Amino acid sequence: MKSLIFNALVIFALGALLMGPSLALAGVSLAVGAVTGTALSFMPKGMAFMAIQVEIWQNHIEEELFKDNSFLRLSHSADANVIDSKIVHIPQSGGSGNVVKNRAVLPAAIRVRQDTDVIYLLDEYTTDPVRIPDADTHELSYDKRNSVLGEDMDKLKEVVAEETIINWLSSPASLGYGAQVLPASRILETTGPNVAASAEGATGQRKGASRNDLQRMQTMFRTQKRWFNGKMNALLTPEMEAQMFPVNDIITATYMQNVTEEERRMGLIYKVHGWNIWSRSTVARLNAAGDILAPGSAGTTTDDEASLFWYTEAVEFAMGGARAFQDLSNPVYYSDIYSFLVRAGGRARRADYGGIALLKQAKTV
Fold it and tell me: Do 136 and 15 belong to one domain?
């Protein structure tokens, strides 16, 4: 009876949106609800709407990847260049020719632009299969399946985001291409007052970040001809954000007012010196030798935190698809088993890492 009433209410609500509520619609909804409820009662438990649930989870994965990680959208989308959900193939321009003022020698030499190809593999991220015992689906007062899968989803999007940042800063060797890394010339150091070291495992003090560092970073991008108004982004660590924008500073409030309500919902916090400023719990870490450390690597006492600065079209992100797997009523484990898979990747779009930079904590003297 509860299923019949539920089905009828759903059908009535949908019909009311299209045609408006009426007594006739209520009668039809009750009849259709009874028919669909009876038909579904003959289907094995878990089979009804199973395919739709998987499709919803797969769409949900792609949506959730960008939730709380809006900075991933601030990049060139390479989705159209993904081949067979595994490989990204991108033509690389050979550069422009010379421009001659008042050309005196004719005929002019004809040049041929020598384009190259950039090819790289997408990374495959998979969650550990999780088992939901049959008893839990019947006896618990909360939906354990959604709770467990929600935690796995949070971990998946966290790992994809952190690995994408590293891919933007360092490209591993693959398919005949040698490994590359952000040049030291594109790493600036902080110039603010001394603060406690904030990188995981780090000790002692470092120079804090200041708003003057934002101006210095803008100057570097302009000098390298990589400054494009409206497309400049900064992803700050929480510590650097707090150092640049203390809560009791009137200027901080002014910078926050530059952000629209829609932008704030997307995660944008400030607009300062031409930078759209975002923040994330972790961004990048470097060791004492200046090497960029991989996510999850053990911290040392001499490590330094760094914030990321980039021009939107200087980096790219590609999604090769997402899949949700389920094995319902597994006869061996007496459980439902679930797992997720995502193929994603990214890289700097220029071999010289133009349009990308780091602001790293400086050691104190």
Answer: no
